[in-house]
Design brief:
Number of helices: 12
Radius of gyration: 19 Å
Distance between the termini: 27 Å
Largest sheet: 4 strands, parallel
CATH class of the largest domain: Alpha Beta
Strand order of the largest sheet: 2-1-3-4
Order of helices and strands: EHEHEHHEHHEHEHHEHHEH
Shape: globular
Structural class: alpha/beta
Number of strands: 8
Number of domains: 2
């Protein structure tokens, strides 16, 4: 059994907006023989609101505390995040600690107030990287017992798994990993030119009229290209694309009703898992196109 230190992130907590991602990821990992050891007493990583004016040091100190706790509890075991924003915030913090001595010193001064310290050396990884690099494409395909044949899926990567770090050396402008994941389940990845367009992220909370326009363009592209469902690795993207379809329909005169799910939900279903194992019962917009595979 492979083991990783795990940072679930705020949105994945019980009854939070991405609880379906957390539940389906746990099911997926059980089916793969992966154990996720959650950091005890973890805190918010500071994304995305941490960029709004809280200052650089406080923002990174939140992530540094998680690293310090992880190192104390699990040594230098790789730390895995499922949320794109969490992964981005923690990876930035970790790389700057390793590369900028004054940042490391200042953060450790802050950590010392809580009796903690962090010397670097923990690798920060997105769950997608674990699936591709550690599990591998052949294993992901070999576990399929109920191919999602005929299902047309738009793979929406979004911004944060793609820039600035990218995933597994894939293209920044036209990444293929999510399309390959879709195809690995037996489904069809439809052409989707908006796959890395921004949905507005946290702008949806402060200036929804602007973010709704961005999100509408993404939804329209998926529908125009024949998608029955949209798949994403990002909980903020999933929230914006799914929950706000009603507001977009009301304000922009559209008629969207397309389910937005996570790659983990597709894998669990294709690997023979139950509807509840894939947390598909937790969708806001019912994932009816997937019912035929349940």
């Amino acid at each position: 059994m492979k083991e990783y230190t795990f940072f679930p992130g705020c949105s994945s907590e019980h009854n939070a907006s991405a609880a379906n991602m957390e539940n389906s990821v746990q099911s997926m990992c059980q089916m793969l023989g992966i154990k996720l050891n959650e950091i005890d007493d973890w805190n918010c990583c500071s994304a995305s609101i941490g960029y709004a004016g809280g200052g650089q040091l406080p923002r990174m100190a939140l992530s540094a505390r998680n690293f310090a706790l992880a190192q104390k509890q699990r040594g230098n075991t790789d730390l895995v995040a499922t949320c794109a924003a969490c992964w981005l915030a923690m990876r930035e913090t970790n790389e700057r600690i390793e590369e900028e001595s004054h940042i490391k010193q200042n953060l450790n001064t802050a950590l010392a107030e809580a009796g903690l310290s962090y010397d670097g050396h923990i690798k920060t990884r997105h769950m997608v990287e674990v699936l591709i690099e550690d599990v591998g494409w052949e294993t992901l395909k070999s576990k399929v017992t109920k191919p999602l044949k005929g299902l047309k899926v738009a793979g929406y990567v979004g911004c944060q798994t793609n820039r600035p770090f990218g995933v597994c050396g894939d293209s920044f402008e036209n990444p293929q990993y999510l399309d390959r994941m879709i195809e690995a389940t037996g489904a069809t990845a439809v052409p989707f030119p908006m796959k890395v367009a921004c949905c507005g992220g946290a702008l949806m909370f402060s200036e929804p009229e602007k973010s709704c326009v961005l999100t509408k363009q993404i939804l329209q592209s998926a529908v125009d290209n024949g998608a029955e469902v949209i798949v994403t690795p990002c909980p903020v993207c999933q929230l914006n694309l799914e929950v706000y379809q009603g507001l977009i329909n009301k304000t922009l005169g559209t008629n969207f009703n397309i389910p937005v799910v996570y790659y983990s939900q597709l894998f669990v279903l294709a690997w023979g898992g139950k509807w509840e194992d894939a947390a598909l019962h937790q969708q806001v917009i019912p994932a009816e196109p997937l019912r035929r595979f349940a």
